[in-house]
């Protein structure tokens, strides 16, 4: 029984990719893509913070512990395949910013940064706005519920 190799369009795409070459393959870890996306998101005016409330609390704890760094991937989750990536971004926006325009700017910047730095094709960037920062509120006060006396 002989086997014949067929070149499919998927194989052609893979062969044309800068991640797969004649002398080897480049793999990029999810955490690398998440960090790139986190930095690209923070570059956009109108993004106050990344993550939902639980992630932000953990981030605040990390900031005060000696020897731990703030995570650049906080609020970012990614799925990285051989040639493509999907990114989920969770943010807190500044009050007064047009959220649909903010999401579009985040999407553009994240796609551009990941594609330029990794060669991966970004197929989706989904943005979730978890909260709005009013500027004069302390983040800790916003997370506390009113006390009954």
TrEMBL record:
Q: Which PANTHER family match?
A: ALKALINE SHOCK PROTEIN 23, HYPOTHETICAL CYTOSOLIC PROTEIN-RELATED
User: Where in this protein does the record put region Disordered?
Assistant: 1-20
Q: What is this protein called?
A: Alkaline shock protein 23
* Record-annotated membrane-spanning stretches: none
- The domain of life is Bacteria
Instruction: Please give the InterPro entries that the UniProt record associates with this protein.
Output: Asp23 (IPR005531)
Which Pfam families does the UniProt record give?
Asp23
Q: So what family is this one in?
A: Belongs to the asp23 family.
């Amino acid at each position: 029984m002989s086997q014949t190799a067929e070149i499919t369009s998927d194989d052609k795409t893979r062969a044309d990719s800068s991640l797969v070459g004649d002398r080897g393959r480049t793999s990029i870890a999810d955490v690398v893509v998440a960090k790139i996306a986190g930095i690209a998101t923070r570059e956009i005016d109108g993004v106050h913070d990344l993550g939902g409330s639980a992630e932000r609390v953990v981030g605040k704890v990390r900031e005060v512990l000696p020897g731990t760094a703030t995570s650049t991937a906080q609020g970012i989750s990614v799925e990285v395949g051989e040639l493509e990536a999907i990114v989920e971004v969770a943010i807190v926006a500044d009050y007064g910013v047009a959220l649909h325009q903010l999401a579009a700017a985040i999407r553009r910047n994240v796609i551009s940064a990941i594609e330029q730095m990794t060669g991966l094709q970004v197929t989706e960037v989904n943005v979730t706005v978890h909260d709005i920062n009013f500027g004069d509120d302390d983040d800790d006060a916003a997370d506390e519920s009113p006390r009954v006396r």
